[in-house]
Amino acid sequence: xxxxxxxxxxxxxxxxxxxxxxxxxxxxxxxxxxxxxxxxxxxxxxxxxxxxxxxxxxxxxxxxxxxxxxxxxxxxxxxxxxxxxxxxxxxxxxxxxxxxxxxxxxxxxxxxxxxxxxxxxxxxxxxxxxxxxxxxxxxxxxxxxxxxxxxxxxxxxxxxxxxxxxxxxxxxxxxxxxxxxxxxxxxxxxxxxxxxxxxxxxxxxxxxxxxxxxxxxxxxxxxxxxxxxxxxxxxxxxxxxxxxxxxxxxxxxxxxxxxxxxxxxxxxxxxxxxxxxxxxxxxxxxxxxxxxxxxxxxxxxxxxxxxxxxxxxxxxxxxxxxxxxxxxxxxxxxxxxxxxxxxxxxxxxxxxxxxxxxxxxxxxxxxx
Amino acid sequence: xxxxxxxxxxxxxxxxxxxxxxxxxxxxxxxxxxxxxxxxxxxxxxxxxxxxxxxxxxxxxxxxxxxxxxxxxxxxxxxxxxxxxxxxxxxxxxxxxxxxxxxxxxxxxxxxxxxxxxxxxxxxxxxxxxxxxxxxxxxxxxxxxxxxxxxxxxxxxxxxxxxxxxxxxxxxxxxxxxxxx
Lengths: 368, 181
Description:
The complex is a heterodimer of chains A (368) and B (181). Chain A has 368 residues and is an alpha+beta fold. Chain A has 15 helices and 8 strands. In chain A, helix 3 (72-87) packs antiparallel against helix 4. The radius of gyration of chain A is 21 Å and the shape is globular. The longest helix of chain A is centred in the first third of the chain and has 30 residues, at 93-122. Chain B is of the alpha+beta class and 181 residues long. Chain B has 2 domains: 24-39 and 151-181, no CATH class; 46-145, 2-Layer Sandwich (Alpha-Beta Plaits). Chain B contains 4 helices and 5 strands; from the N terminus they run H-E-H-E-E-H-E-E-H. In chain B, the strands form 2 sheets. Chain B has a 3-stranded antiparallel sheet with strand order 2-3-5. A two-stranded antiparallel sheet of chain B has the order 1-4. The longest helix of chain B is centred in the N-terminal third of the chain and has 12 residues, at 8-19. The interface between A and B is large, with 45 and 41 residues.
């Protein structure tokens, strides 16, 4: 005689056990197997899109820091690209190189957090994170040297960057780049062949190529599924067409591939940085002449770039005044998290945590 | 999942961990020891130069939070005198846009970053608290003229031989923590 059963609903969060932010997952369970998952978001909503409507174009830049707070520089840059497209501004050569240098350092830093906390979710409590934070501290020292803070940089400006590089910066970044490949080898020695990592993540949470394209995923989540799509290559913004680098892709789209693609991207970022450091002009302006109350012409513009988490875009509608009429933010992790239910159904609760960790979400960006 | 040679990966990882037993420390004991911050640090306070300020309120216009209160009256000749100049550091996001916009270099970011207070009212920085003094000095954020006066930032990138700060294990007896501050 069949026994009547019904799913058991479990709330994970609002304070998620592995705290990627204030996030709630309503999971339907059959025993220990996940049969349904519903992400409930909005706990960190601050209304940044609405705040921008009552602020000038420059005043919105500090708020873009607070979207994806682990990659503030690329958020700043995406917003500035959109405003520059709207106003038809030209950025000085040296500022373009500084922007590329900081985007790539930011990508290294963000991927380290992503990989570290993915392993933290997996049960490697804090050890890999601390290996990666050793280098992240050095990166944050360099950010502090240039723009005065360690998390919320507010460095990019419309038409360039806020300040020139200090004299100590170039020797520091050269030393960092010389050491970095050695450290990446160290992470690989610690993790790449680790049996526990392989057993827990190989073949777990597969996101197929078609689903990844179908939901509009971007960044390492898309590339791990085997799609060779990187805006730096496909639609080069800033000066990315001048650099020689590869777009690493995965084969199956499981959690291990998402981890491995990030590690390969760190190596490619180091490659781009080496070229940018060699090519950067010694002298020159770092910001175009833009008034404090910048009034772009009426119209609309969409600025987007390949951030560490994926395609981040800013859509701005201008009515010719000092404030945007409407600002819309296209957040990569909100789009990527829609793939969660495709990935987790059929897996156990323990796998749910690592699949969620492998997407690399930042709730500041999802809720905005 | 099947493994041909189980244990190699873990052995490699443990070899790395073992090697780290013999390296020098990479952290400091924070409240007892401090690293030197960047010269351009945007600390949790602002520094105001009363003699340079003309009361033009450009800083108040550029503030994304609308956080700067400034009120003036006409003094002798064409000079304006500042009656009220207040910044609520509890609402300030320390973005530094006010410092960038000041046309007379009358405002600068401060150096301090340990500004916890017991009351919200204490967070409001009045004219007297903002004014520059011997122990309230500006940082070089957007003010390169102050850069030479400030000590060099200690980067974790460099070890002691290369000019970095000395990192050592601080014995428990030398730590002040827990002694009842």
